[in-house]
């Protein structure tokens, strides 16, 4: 069996194309996971932490236990919002890269990442307070 340089170059190009396809699949999966995880963190904070935090926030005469609970909820709100913010930003960047490669799922990932980013910005920063 003889191997020529032309055959090696063709095989090398084929392998490179296959690796690019595999890499894009992995990047798509990572982008989806990041965007959905950020969205879940943001939604959990929005629907579980914020109602309790806001209920305690409007009261003026808090006991020591209620103040400790309020501080704990404020810390949780900040941490979960920050996680949603950064995961949303990473998911958005990855979604944009995937979308520019003419993959339809990239624009969906970009949208999910932006929603996650906005939820995180609302919850963890003082931008909207």
Highlighted features:
129 residues, rod-shaped, mainly alpha, 3 helices
Low-confidence stretches: none
Name the helix and strand elements from N-terminus to C-terminus, one letter apiece: HHH
Any idea what the shape is? rod-shaped
Gyration radius over CA: 23 Å
Distance between the termini: 74 Å
Mean pLDDT: 82
Number of helices: 3
Q: How many structural domains does the protein architecture include?
A: 1
Residues in helices, as a percent range:
over 70%
Q: What class would the helix/strand composition place it in?
A: mainly alpha
Strand percentage: under 5%
Largest sheet, in brief, is: none
Number of E-type strands: 0
Structural notes for this entry:
The chain is mainly α and 129 residues long. The protein has one domain (30-124). Helix content is 86%, strand content 0%. α1 runs antiparallel to α2 (64-100), α1 runs parallel beside α3 (104-124) and α2 runs antiparallel to α3. The protein is rod-shaped, with a radius of gyration of 23 Å.
